[in-house]
């Protein structure tokens, strides 16, 4: 079934909405500046290569590339062909990629044949290769984009978005207006373009609006500030709360008159970090609330409503039994009917929250499931726990989040923790792995036999 | 307590590499602990990419000069022990 708004969209949308603009207008800066004429040329070349490999309108492809010009051109070329692109985070393990490909059955997989660049690089130089998947199937839906979100048990959720849904999100950014970069400005994006904030809020909106998308050379405070300083145009930083912490820690930042604001997605930073940032840089610090299913949902781009946020134009929100729901015509999930996630035209966010009558201001009060955010990346603790508990040598496991992801495990007598850790390393991406391990004799349970996840009880079992 | 065999385990248990000065290690742990308001003993042995970005800034502020490690050196900085080694190689470390 279709997601969001389902109007059949001609592949022409890529040219009209994203690629149009003066030939010499620099639209991307990944190390070197790329103007629109060059981008159009590179996209056309990739379109030719993907077509030669056999990709057709209605076909399907998975992109497993790090942030790079290759990622951008292959994505736009896939859409220009009229095929569906699934995005697989390049940090996933081979095991996770294999599972995702089995689940999504793309006809082709675009992988990195060679990557240059290493730790802390915000983008990579990639030579890509196209691999045909013998078990691949054409797209059965009208989606342009598919992203995976981890599920607690069983298959992960596949979230589909149509071209018209993506265009609607781009239009939403335009309609929000003040605080969103305009044409001729710059966006220095610290948010991964493989995920919705960096993808739509940075890349697609920037291409549409004629705002230059700039990625810093490295993800360090100095390189980020150097990327801001590199151009005179009004500049907005786009990132996640970690980046606020990182930049707030710079004792004496250079004077950056072009820096007009910073917008982050995800949870709010602590008040003292917020104040330290505003004090250091003297700019607006804005917050956005969004989901992979829908993109940007609500914002507070000037910190005027903190900690509340205001739904973006066209977004209707309500609290249902303490859970935030968002009006959404169709279920965004591909091949999955789960009434606890979408029902009767409402997307269930799994976030606790409230909507203030009259003003419509929304408070988000945290997850009602086991999802946590690690540097802006969503991790479902129950997925990690389920995988860990299924490894040889593990009798039981509880995975919790305090200051970091922590695992409590009961091992079989002959098992070694090293083997268990190695097993988990094969199966889950680095950012999902526990940072602290506690081997215990038994896991505490409630009177009815349920595993206890309360940290104070768990630490008593140590 | 009693004969409970519970073990507290970081991801890598050897403390200190060959010739690694304990004070250099303490210094790295202290810098990493400033991220997320942790105590030095709460810092795990493995260093993730967020911690590495944080650490580089801490090193530069502490020593007042750029930390110009190449990709190869940065790629090695995945544990506290490896960070201490790289800092030593590049002439950072010690009492500062």
Please characterize this protein's 3D structure:
The complex is a heterodimer of chains A (462) and B (96). By secondary structure, chain A is α/β, with parallel strands linked by helices. Chain A has three domains: 13-161, Rossmann fold, CATH 3.40.50.980; 165-315, Rossmann fold, CATH 3.40.50.12780; 373-460, GMP Synthetase, Chain A, domain 3. Chain A has twelve helices and 25 strands. In chain A, helix 2 packs across helix 3 (69-81), helix 5 (163-176) crosses helix 6 (196-209) and helix 8 crosses helix 9. Chain B has a domain at 30-89: Non-ribosomal Peptide Synthetase Peptidyl Carrier Protein, Chain A, CATH 1.10.1200. Chain B is built from four helices and one strand; from the N terminus they run E-H-H-H-H. Chain B has helices at 22-33, 49-63, 71-76, 80-89, and one strand at 7-9. In chain B, helix 1 crosses helix 4. Chain B starts with 6 loop residues before the first strand and ends in a 7-residue tail after the last helix. The chains are: A alpha/beta (462), B mainly alpha (96).
Main features:
heterodimer; A: 462 residues; alpha/beta; Rossmann fold; 3 domains; six-stranded mixed sheet; disordered N terminus; B: 96 residues; mainly alpha; 3% strand
Q: Give a quick account of the main beta sheet of chain A: strands, pairing sense, barrel closure.
A: 9 strands, mixed
Into which percentage range does the β-strand content of chain A fall? 25-35%
CATH topology of the domain at 30-89 in chain B: Non-ribosomal Peptide Synthetase Peptidyl Carrier Protein, Chain A
Instruction: Report the end-to-end length of chain B measured between terminal Cα atoms.
Output: 41 Å
Q: Structural class of chain A, please?
A: alpha/beta
Provide a quick synopsis of the model:
By secondary structure, chain A is of the alpha/beta class.
Write the layout of secondary structure elements.
The complex is a heterodimer of chains A (462) and B (96).
Chain A: H1 13-19, E1 26-30, E2 32-35, H2 36-53, E3 60-64, H3 69-81, E4 84-87, H4 94-104, E5 108-116, E6 125-132, E7 145-149, E8 157-161, H5 163-176, E9 186-189, H6 196-209, E10 212-215, H7 221-229, E11 235-239, H8 241-248, E12 259-265, H9 271-281, E13 284-291, E14 295-300, E15 310-311, E16 317-320, E17 323-327, E18 342-343, E19 346-355, E20 362-367, E21 371-374, E22 377-380, H10 381-389, E23 394-401, E24 405-411, H11 417-427, E25 436-439, H12 455-460
Parallel strand pairs in A: 1-10, 3-4, 3-5, 4-7, 9-10, 9-11, 11-12, 12-13, 24-25
Antiparallel strand pairs in A: 1-2, 5-6, 7-8, 13-14, 14-15, 16-17, 17-19, 18-19, 19-20, 21-22, 23-24
Helix pairs in contact in A: 2-3, 5-6, 8-9
Chain B: E1 7-9, H1 22-33, H2 49-63, H3 71-76, H4 80-89
């Amino acid at each position: 079934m279709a997601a969001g708004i389902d109007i059949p969209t001609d592949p022409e949308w890529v040219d009209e909405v994203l690629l149009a603009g003066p030939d010499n207008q620099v639209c991307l800066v990944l190390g070197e500046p790329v103007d629109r004429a060059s981008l159009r040329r590179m996209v056309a070349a990739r379109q030719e290569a993907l077509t030669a490999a056999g990709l057709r309108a209605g076909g399907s492809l998975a992109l497993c590339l790090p942030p790079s010009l290759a990622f951008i051109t292959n994505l736009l070329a896939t859409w220009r062909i009229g095929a569906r692109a699934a995005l697989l985070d390049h940090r996933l393990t081979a095991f996770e990629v294999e599972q995702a490909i089995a689940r999504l059955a793309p006809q082709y997989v675009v992988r990195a044949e060679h990557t240059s660049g290493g730790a802390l690089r915000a983008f990579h130089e990639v030579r890509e290769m196209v691999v045909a998947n013998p078990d691949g199937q054409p797209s059965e839906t009208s989606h342009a984009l598919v992203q995976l979100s981890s599920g607690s048990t069983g298959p992960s959720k596949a979230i589909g978005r149509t071209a018209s849904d993506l265009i609607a999100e781009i239009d939403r950014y335009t309609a929000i207006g003040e605080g969103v970069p305009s044409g001729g400005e710059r966006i220095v994006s610290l948010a991964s373009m493989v995920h919705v904030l960096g993808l739509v809020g940075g890349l697609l909106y920037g291409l549409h609006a004629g705002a230059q998308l700039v990625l810093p050379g490295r993800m360090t405070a100095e390189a980020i500030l150097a990327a801001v300083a590199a151009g005179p145009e009004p500049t907005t930083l786009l990132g996640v709360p970690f980046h606020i912490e990182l930049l707030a820690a710079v004792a004496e930042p250079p004077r950056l008159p072009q820096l007009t604001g910073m917008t982050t997605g995800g949870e709010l930073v602590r008040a003292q970090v917020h104040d330290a940032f505003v004090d250091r840089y003297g700019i607006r610090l804005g917050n956005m609330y969004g989901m992979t299913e829908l993109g940007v949902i609500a914002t507070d781009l000037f910190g005027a409503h903190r900690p509340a946020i205001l739904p973006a134009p066209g977004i209707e929100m309500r609290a249902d039994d303490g859970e935030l729901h968002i009006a959404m015509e169709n279920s965004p999930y591909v091949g999955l009917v789960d009434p606890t996630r979408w029902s009767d035209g409402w997307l269930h966010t799994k976030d606790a929250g409230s909507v203030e009558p009259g003003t419509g201001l929304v408070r988000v009060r945290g997850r009602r499931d086991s999802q946590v955010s690690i540097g802006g990346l969503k991790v479902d603790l129950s997925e990690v726990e389920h995988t860990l508990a299924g490894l040889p040598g593990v009798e039981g496991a509880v995975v919790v989040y305090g200051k970091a992801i922590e695992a409590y495990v009961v091992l079989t007598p002959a098992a070694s923790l090293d083997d268990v850790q190695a097993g988990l390393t094969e199966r889950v991406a680095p950012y999902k792995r526990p940072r602290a391990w506690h081997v215990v004799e038994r896991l505490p349970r409630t009177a009815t036999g349920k595993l206890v996840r309360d940290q104070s009880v768990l630490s008593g079992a140590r | 307590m009693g004969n409970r065999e519970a073990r507290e385990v970081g991801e890598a248990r050897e403390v200190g590499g060959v010739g690694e000065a304990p004070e250099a290690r303490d210094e790295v742990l202290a810098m990493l602990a400033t991220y997320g308001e942790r105590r030095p003993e709460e810092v795990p042995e493995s260093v993730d990419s967020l911690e590495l970005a944080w650490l580089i800034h801490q090193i530069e502020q502490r020593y007042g000069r750029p930390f110009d490690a190449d990709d190869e050196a940065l790629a090695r900085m995945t544990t506290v022990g490896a960070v201490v080694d790289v800092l030593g190689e590049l002439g950072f470390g010690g009492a500062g």
